[in-house]
Amino acid sequence: MRKKVTVVGAGNVGATAAQRLAEKGVADVVLVDIVEGMPQGKALDLMQAAPVEKHDFKLIGSNDYGPSENSDVVIITAGIARKPGMSRDDLIKTNMKIVGDVTKEVAGLSPRAVLIVVSNPLDAMCHVAYKVSGFDRQHVVGMAGILDSARFRTFVAMELNVSVENIQALVLGGHGDTMVPLPRFTTVAGIPITEFIPPDRLQALIDRTRNGGAEIVGLLKTGSAYYAPASSAVEMAESILYDRKKILPCATLLDGQYGIKNLFIGVPVKLGVGGVEKVIELKLTPEEDAALKKSAAAVQSLVDFLAKEGF
Questions:
Q1: Residue 173 parent element (H or E)
Q2: Exposed, middle or buried, 303 (CB in 10 Å: 0-12/13-18/19+)?
Q3: Edge-to-edge strands of the sheet including 167-168?
Q4: Domain at 4-142: CATH code
Q5: Which residue of the set 55, 127, 139, 175 is catalytic?
Q6: Strand 180-181 and strand 171-172: pairing?
Q7: For the chain, where are the E strands, in sequence order?
C-alpha cells in the first residue's frame, strides 16, 4: 500500500514539496489550501506532468481536509510571511491561529500521523502544533536544521569548489540568527573543515549561513526561499515513511537533553516510522553549549509570548 502525505498550504513551499514527494516516488499527496481552486489547479498541473516525469503517484487538491484522512505524514506550511512593517508579535499571533486551526483539522482525521512543521516562526509553531494536536513528542517535529545545514554545506562547497556531496555539516539551535553552526562537526570527505578553510573565512561562511534566509528575501524582494525548505521537509518525510532512520538535525521537544527542557530546539535526531525515535546528544564545548543556550533563550521568549496569548 502506498504512503500518503498531506501538505497544508499550496503556496511556493507547499506546492514544491508536493512536486518533490510525487516525482521522487515518496508518496501520494493531498494538497490543501483555503484559496478556492489553487490547490486543485496545482495538483492537476502536477498530475499532467506525471507522464513526462514517469511516475504514477496521485496528487489531489482540496479546500477541505476530508481527502487528508489517514495520512501517514502531514507537512504544515500554512501561514503568512513577515511583511515590511510587520512586527514579530503580529507574525506570531497570525500564524499561531493559522497553524492551530490547521493542526486541529489534520490531527482529528489522521491521529497516527507524524506532523512536520515548516511554518514560521518555526520553533514557536512547533509548540502550537504539539499542544493543539495532543500528539506525543515523537510525532511533532520541525523542519529547520536540515535547511540551515544545507545552506552551510552549500557555502562550504562553493568556497572550496568541491561537490556538495562531499560536505557534511551540522547546525543546531533555533531557526533564526541565533542558530549554532558547528564547524567541529563539519567535514569535507571526512576531513575536518579546518584543514581547508582559515578561521576568518570560516566565520564568514557561518555568518552567511545565519543570514541565509534573509539573503534570499533580499534578492527576491517579494518572497522568501522555497526550493530548499521544500526539499528539507521531503527528506524528513521520506525517512519517516520508509523507516530510513536517518540522523538529521530537526526541531524536537527536548526533555532535559543538552540541559534544555520543554522547548523545541534543533538537534540531531533519528527519524523513522515512529517519528523522532532518538535524540542524539553530543558533548559540546563550553562555547558551543553557551551558544545553544543563547539560542534556546531566544526560542523561550517566543514560547513566553505564546503563553501570554493563551497558548
A1: none
A2: middle
A3: 167-168, 187-188, 191-192
A4: 3.40.50.720
A5: 175
A6: antiparallel
A7: 4-8, 28-32, 59-62, 73-76, 114-117, 140-142, 167-168, 171-172, 180-181, 187-188, 191-192, 246-255, 261-272, 275-279
Q: Residue 255: what pLDDT?
A: 96
Torsion of CA 22, 229, 10, 31, to 10 degrees: 40
CA distance linking residue 44 with residue 1, whole number of Å: 23
Give the separation between CA 212 and CA 186, rounded to whole angstroms.
18
| Ordered mean pLDDT values, 10 residues apiece, the chain (311 residues) | 96 98 98 98 98 98 98 96 69 93 98 97 96 98 96 98 97 92 96 96 96 91 92 98 98 97 97 98 97 96 90 78
Range 145-308 classified under CATH 3.40.30.10: no
**Is 55 noted as a catalytic residue in this protein?**
no
Distance of CA 175 to the CA centre of its chain: 9
The rounded Cα 121 to chain-centroid distance in angstroms is 11
Q: At a CB cut-off of 8 Å and minimum separation 6, what does 288 contact?
A: 180, 182, 184
Residue boundaries of the structural domains of the chain: 4-142, 145-308
Query: What's residue 80's pLDDT?
Result: 87
What pLDDT is stored for residue 83 in this prediction? 66
Give this prediction's pTM: 0.96
